[in-house]
Design goal:
- The radius of gyration is 27 Å and the shape is elongated.
- The chain is mainly beta.
- β11 and β12 form a beta hairpin.
- Helix content is 4%, strand content 58%.
């Protein structure tokens, strides 16, 4: 029979609920702070003993399964406490701050018995990726075995700085008023495979959002992608369109580049190899390839010499004087 159950109060303090009789349950609040260790276990550092006779520091280590609530709080469903079987749900109420490399940052606020408030940040390690339905997801890092996947069910978009934004609402207060929140994932877009458009997160070694491309169209000042909507048994598939704005540059050493500007004036360049063909009217059609010039990406862009800049005219002269109908540029074929 269950004797002790763990939960949290609205101020992110640990509540120990003990069943003293068959009819009543004694509940007590322990002041303290939560921490997360490198194996994604949740630890509570209490200011006073949780158990009689316990020595300081008063640490309680919880194992269990992580999940994301409908209100975008993170929750641990407890399976063990200090290596002993235990039960309960520890919901950490707060605000997501976004990604820090391969981790999820989450700010929580607690209150002591004296009424003092303290806000601190928890870091949950794992891998950011894309679910099968174009929704953002985070797989919690585990030392061994399968990891839990947190699915972010609200919508995401691309802002004017070409950065990926996740937007969600949280209910707050007694009246459950809804308030909008936003996470900006700092990173940059890459295209190195024929079927995937990727968003790489700064500082991440294992994380990236890899979206499957259903259709791609390149213009003189943009790249437009229709992302395929995968199937999910639990969520309605979400089709998305991503439009990146920028400019094409031709380089004798690096091939064809699409330069995109991000927040703070930061410039990132997607580099491509390409099969270039003169199509008349001083226009060149580029069949895009990976930077090494080996794999076809299934995309074409037609550009005039004025769009290509100072190297455009010289490149067109090269095409006109060449005995071949097209020229390979990039790492595999300098010009």
């Amino acid at each position: 029979m269950e004797k002790i159950r763990y939960e949290t109060d609205p101020f992110n303090r640990l509540i120990i609920s003990e069943k003293n009789t068959g009819l009543s349950r004694h509940r007590r609040v322990a002041d303290g702070l939560f921490m997360i260790d490198k194996d994604s276990n949740l630890i509570y550092q209490a200011k006073s003993p949780i158990e009689d006779g316990a020595a300081s520091p008063y640490l309680v280590k919880f194992s269990g399964t992580w999940s994301l609530t409908k209100n975008h709080d993170i929750k641990l469903t407890v399976s063990a406490e200090n290596a002993r079987p235990a039960r309960g749900e520890l919901t950490l109420r707060g605000e997501m701050l976004g990604a820090k490399g391969d981790s999820l940052l989450f700010a929580v606020t607690t209150k002591t018995r004296e009424g003092a408030r303290k806000t601190y940040v928890l870091e949950l390690s794992g891998t950011w990726h894309v679910g099968g339905d174009n929704r953002l997801a985070f797989s919690v890092q585990r030392e061994k075995g399968a990891s839990e996947v947190l699915i972010f069910t609200a919508g995401w978009r691309i802002d004017k700085n070409n950065e990926l934004i996740y937007e969600y609402e949280r209910s707050r207060g007694v009246r459950k008023a809804r308030k909008s929140h936003r996470i900006t994932f700092k990173g940059y877009w890459t295209l190195t495979r024929a079927t995937f458009l990727s968003y790489s997160i700064y500082g991440a070694s294992n994380s990236s959002f890899d979206f499957r491309i259903a259709l791609g169209i390149c213009g003189p000042h943009s790249m437009k992608f229709e992302l395929g909507a995968g199937l999910s048994r639990h969520l309605r598939p979400m089709a998305k369109t991503v439009i990146l704005y920028g400019s094409w540059k031709l380089s004798k050493s690096a091939g064809l580049n699409f330069e995109t500007q991000y927040a703070g004036g930061r410039i990132y360049s997607m580099s491509f190899g390409a099969q270039a063909t003169l199509t008349g009217g001083d226009r060149v059609t580029f069949r895009l390839k990976d930077p090494a010039g080996k794999k076809d990406l299934g995309l074409e862009v037609a550009l005039s010499h004025d769009i290509l800049g100072s190297d455009g005219s010289a490149f067109i002269k090269l095409l006109k004087s060449s005995e071949e109908s097209s020229v390979l540029i990039g790492a595999a074929g300098r010009w």
